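Suppose you are handed a protein chain with no further information: no name, no annotation, nothing but its sequence. What can you learn? This example shows the usual starting point.
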Amino acid sequence: MHNHRLFKYLIILSCSFYSHILLAQAATDLNSANVAIHIAKTHYHHPVRLMHYFRDVWHLKGPMAEKVSLNVLKKYFADAQVCDNGHDANIVLQLEPRMFYNAQFRVFYSDITAKVFINSTPLPDVNAPILTIKQQAQQSGDLMIQPDFSMEKAYTKAVEKIMSKLQTDQAFLNALHQAKQNSTINNDSKALCAALDDLPAQKIYF
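A reasonable first move is to predict its three-dimensional structure. Written in structure tokens, the prediction is:
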């Protein structure tokens, strides 16, 4: 009986040690990786209407989602840039932001879908990301009083949730580690970003 308990303890100890090694490697890969974000151009040109009883607000999702995402991602990655500036990106995150407002309860609801692509040569299939994550968040606030402040907080919460998923997703971590070890990686993300720009609307939104 004593030997059996000792054996179980050693197995648990070994698993714990191995898990710590994997987490340490994952943190190292993230901290030394560069990420570029891609947000469809339509979000920079076509605002959405958030409705209130007495006033409507037109919200341009692209600039705010970009600002928030870069601020969050720079805490986890070596660097984070938009696609046009991501000359040394290891991965590209295609972000699809949405924002809703409930006037009755005075709550902003953010919804962000992130599709993950490894920046490699040849280009990956833009119809087959290695991972898709959808996260939602909410933030109390009044559409009549500093709505941008509340919307930024709602977006930030959603992006933080996405990062929490990425940090523990083994498929993503394995792909990132392999990409960083691959000498043929195409560090300039412009080609991949251009391919994402060419996606038809139905492939972006659905």
